[in-house]
Design brief:
This protein folds into two domains: 3-84, no CATH class; 90-288, 3-Layer(aba) Sandwich (Uracil-DNA Glycosylase, subunit E), CATH 3.40.470.10. Helices cover 42% and strands 12% of the residues. It has helices at 3-16, 39-44, 79-88, 91-101, 105-114, 147-152, 159-169, 202-219, 229-236, 241-244, 262-267, 272-288, and strands spanning 52-53, 57-58, 63-64, 67-68, 131-132, 138-142, 184-188, 223-227, 249-251, 254-259. The longest helix is centred in the C-terminal third of the chain and has 18 residues, at 202-219. The protein is elongated and about 75 Å long.
């Protein structure tokens, strides 16, 4: 958690009356002032306003006055300036600059690893970058890593990935093929797993979209497959995979085919017939290329 988030969390706790982590005696919160001074006021005063008194407490032998210790100021005199700097940062603009500066896939992976604005990185085990051959004719862009992908550091290795491998093999494509003509390259819009596999938020998609777009530009596949709504939203600016699937589009001048995500097919087996039709369209496009 960064400094700005910690200050916001502390302010929220103060508003609720959570002043002491541990206290020697219980506190009657109904006798406290309705509102505690905001933590920002304390910070502006330099954190040296001294201890704050609490109302009298009963110890069973009469009433006495107890002092509440003053909060400890964060280390580093420049902490408030850091809050202002982080608040002024533009995660999307920073991502755009970092992505454009990456001259190859190794540099792009390093830029993602150094990107500080996405909170998902703090809860993930691994940065999931890519798998397969970078010179493959087909590039597959998915949504985000799941639990197995996060654990192994590779995209599409869980149940959905195993189904995808079978789908690709049906049209003579493999991620570990020796020849680029028969190979695929796999990645995701998000390189870090969202907690509990939730859908990425619009802010997360927006800040990581420049990296995904740069990834596509560096690989330059003959065909790009967009697996699921999140990939379509990031690359095409549209959602509604049921309407989009099977309809060719273009991303950076590359023929692009939206398809159902394999995880959706696991939940809705009846939709596999549409996925098979899309795979045949992919095979036809590769054969004519």
């Amino acid at each position: 958690m960064d400094y700005a988030a910690m200050v916001a969390a502390l302010d929220w706790q103060l508003e609720l009356g959570a002043v002491d982590a541990l206290a020697e005696a219980p506190v009657d919160r109904t006798q406290l002032p309705e509102k505690q001074p905001p933590v920002e006021d304390w910070l502006r005063q330099g954190g040296d306003s001294g201890p704050v008194s609490q109302p009298a407490q009963s110890n069973g032998q009469g009433h006495g006055q107890r002092k509440r210790p003053a909060a400890t100021a964060p280390a580093g005199a420049g902490a408030p300036a850091l809050v202002a700097a982080e608040s002024a940062a533009d995660p999307v603009a920073d991502a755009q600059r970092a992505a454009e500066a990456a001259g190859d896939l190794t540099a792009l992976q390093a830029a993602l690893a150094d990107y500080p604005h996405c909170g998902l990185r703090h809860g993930a085990r691994n940065l999931v970058f890519a798998d397969g051959r970078a010179d493959a004719r087909v590039m597959i862009l998915g949504e985000a890593p799941g639990a197995d992908e996060d654990r192994l550091g590779k995209p599409f290795v869980g149940r959905a990935g195993q189904l995808l491998d079978k789908m690709l093999e049906a049209v003579a494509l493999r991620r570990d093929a020796d020849a680029p003509e028969a190979a695929v390259y796999l990645t995701n819009v998000l390189p870090w797993r969202p907690p509990q596999n939730r859908d990425p938020s619009p802010d997360e998609i927006a800040m990581l979209k420049p990296f995904a777009a740069r990834h596509v530009s560096l690989v330059k596949p003959d065909v790009l497959l967009l697996m699921g709504n999140i990939a379509c939203q990031a690359m095409l600016g549209r959602k509604g995979i049921t309407r989009l699937r099977g309809n060719w589009a273009e991303v950076h001048g590359i023929p692009t085919l939206p398809m159902f995500h394999p995880s959706y097919l696991l939940r809705n087996p009846a939709m596999k017939r549409h996925a098979w039709a899309d795979l045949l369209a992919l095979k036809a496009r590769l054969g004519s290329g």
